[in-house]
Amino acid sequence: MKIFSAVQIRKWDEFTIANEPIASIDLMERAASRCTEWLLKKFDADKSFKIFCGKGNNGGDGLAIARLLSQSKRQVSVYVTGSKPAGSFDFEQNLLRLKELSIDVTFLESKKTFASIEKNDIVIDALFGTGLNKKPLGIYLDVINCINDSCASIVSIDVPSGLFTDKSSAGNDIVKARYTLTFQQVKLAFLFAENESFTGEINVLDIGLSPAFYNNENSNFFLVDKEIIRNIYIPRKAFANKGNYGYACLVAGSYGMMGASILSAWACLRSGVGKLTSYICEDGYTIMQSCVPEGMCKVFGKTFIKDVNGLSEFDVVGVGPGIGKHPSHKELLQAVFKNSNQLIIDADGLNALSANKSLYKSIPANTIITPHPKEFEKLFGKTANNFEMIELARGKAKQLQIYIVLKGHHTFITTPDGEGYFNSTGNSGMATAGAGDVLTGIITALLAQHYSPLHACILGIYLHGLAGDIAADKLSKEAMIAGDIIDFLGDGFLAIENFSREV
């Protein structure tokens, strides 16, 4: 799914109005109807609604919702922020419609006019929506703080007020919604950890915006969904043999950290690789052969890996999980860079890279790196917020001609041409030691099976998160460990195979 900016969303509205065709106020009515349907299903009939509106189109949505709730026999109070100068055309039209029902509207000009919000009230936030372009101040700031100070359940319409759609909102006062009812698609701001406390549970409501605009409009950002996976996933052929599914190598593990090597190897094998050899140290040989009998081993070094050779025989090399921190890893990376056909770097491989920044210029084109935020910071420097981090990642991916998989709740992939993909699967139960080693094994296996680097990253993060979601459903988020993700990879593949058959 493409992710559009606030400007593109406004153009999408305008295109729909012009080409459906539909009057703008009728499109607003459609959006308000979807919200009202959700509210009526969610909240009991004895709940009263206090609806806070700005004077733009988001406020118009709020007024239309108020009218529809009132017509459904719900108790409604409406508050418009600021004095009585005119709002947008559709806001004014909905204000007239509301007054025909004799619903009182209070204009909040100062704190003295503020409503008393009770604990059992439902607060509807319809102050700004996607149109916000500056930090809320004055009476708007007071209203936001009044809403947040209440103990009521808060529902934001489209975007929590005070939250910018396309840039960091750090320093803003923002409505802390329990639920956000957003229109047509998730907004970019919803995908960042820094905004988690404001958006609450996000519900995407289809308001019938034009598919023609969506199909023809370009975007730099995408949300990885079933449709994207359906177009990527390649089912196995009946007459295939292991040679068709690639030969992978994992350079992983050291004394005391062989678990990382085992997790990566198991994940690689469970993700469909034809054949796997693990490059390990001598002290890990018995452990590896005992735990992963389906894989082969080659030994380089006593307690940690060094002086590797023969890498060119493999379709793909994954390097880093559990290799430890040793000065000789600079030479290890140089050997890997020189001799690998396709490469993925993770964990201690990234630590070795960040400790030897002179190696950056030697990273082979189309290499995949999979840092978590702290590893990313060591590699490329600090950023002030999540938006700056993804822009830095996009810049570095272009500069180095690599793929960066920035791990997190919505793991972010950026490509050498600057595109960005956010994952839609996964959960907080996957915040556990070894989960990254599992992802390395999955992506390594997909690369070996001749998925392109981009498709291996996209399918890899989606499958990783999907297996984690299945594990959480079966075991709970708290009890989940990295090995559980591997155990449910088969269920993940079955789910992908099933919806790939859907028309």
What does this structure look like?
By secondary structure, the chain is of the alpha/beta class. The chain contains 18 helices and 18 strands. The strands form 2 sheets. It has an 11-stranded mixed sheet, with helices on both faces. A 7-stranded parallel sheet has the order 4-3-2-5-6-7-8, with helices on both faces. Helix 11 links the parallel strand 13 (316-319) and strand 14. Helix 9 (258-270) packs across helix 15. The longest helix is centred in the last third of the chain and has 23 residues, at 453-475. It is elongated and about 80 Å long.
Q: How much helix, percentage-wise, in residues? A: 40-55%
Spatial strand order of the main sheet: 1-9-18-17-16-15-14-13-10-11-12
Label the structural class. Answer: alpha/beta
**So how many helices?**
18
Strand tally, please? 18
